[in-house]
Amino acid sequence: MSEKGTFPTDVDWWPTDSAQDGDFVAAGVLVELDLNARPDCKPAFNAGAIAVHDNIVWVMHASDPILLRVDTSIGGPPNIVRYTLPLPLEVPDEKWTRRVHADGDDGCWITSPHDIHRCTLTDDGGLNLDRYTTEGGRVTAVHLHKLYVVGQSRGWLSSDRRHGVIRTRPDPHRLQVLDETNRRLAPVTHPELERTVSTAATRADVALDTGGTKWSVAGPEELRRINRQTGHASTVDLSGPSRIGVVHDATPNPYTDPINADIVAAITVDPTRPRTVHPPTETAD
Asked: Which one of 14, 27, 86, 137 is separated from 186 by 20 to 30 angstroms, measured CA to CA?
């Protein structure tokens, strides 16, 4: 084995007609990776979707499964906790691939066309991540503490993970609500509620807090807030020091979840059930 200072690009990897016994022929390159080595610099955060409740702002990365909890109540630089979620990276699509909705002081919803998750703060400052359903939608909203999915009434072109850009059919239901008990989406047919929720479904990178202050994504690592009463505007820098938060997967085991008891019972074999004994098959000598 010979050590190379750089990756060779002009090496003939296989013996040629002129190669003789005893000649040295490079057959490959062995690369050693130190998986324990961490880069000194933190990768830049690319803000996509935001939600706010009082002085707490939740910021979701535009495509990566990274969630920030930004506490702006202390004045000066914000207190930022960075959570890396056990979710897949999404293909960048415009400005955001997931939406986030604040739900009180203790957590938020994260929605996408592929799933819906609930994030809840724990007493030790960690975050419980619970997947409620593998259904979802591009447009979601929270109204009176209920999560709604607003469907599309006509076809459109979308990016599919397997097939690329495809034509998508209109959604079968204009409005659906998350049934938290049964962990599924249920159709809503109330016209007035449909209009109310559709109006509440705004851009994912804009949010209003309880005091009427408008928050928006001003850059990859910057938020802008505007007091709608006084017109005063200021910015919040997301590139400052942050603390790494611990994430716990709280999604129920599908085999022990009571919701799936009927399916599990149908595919489970009772080991105490007597087996049918068949007589031995006679064979000719």
From this structure: 86
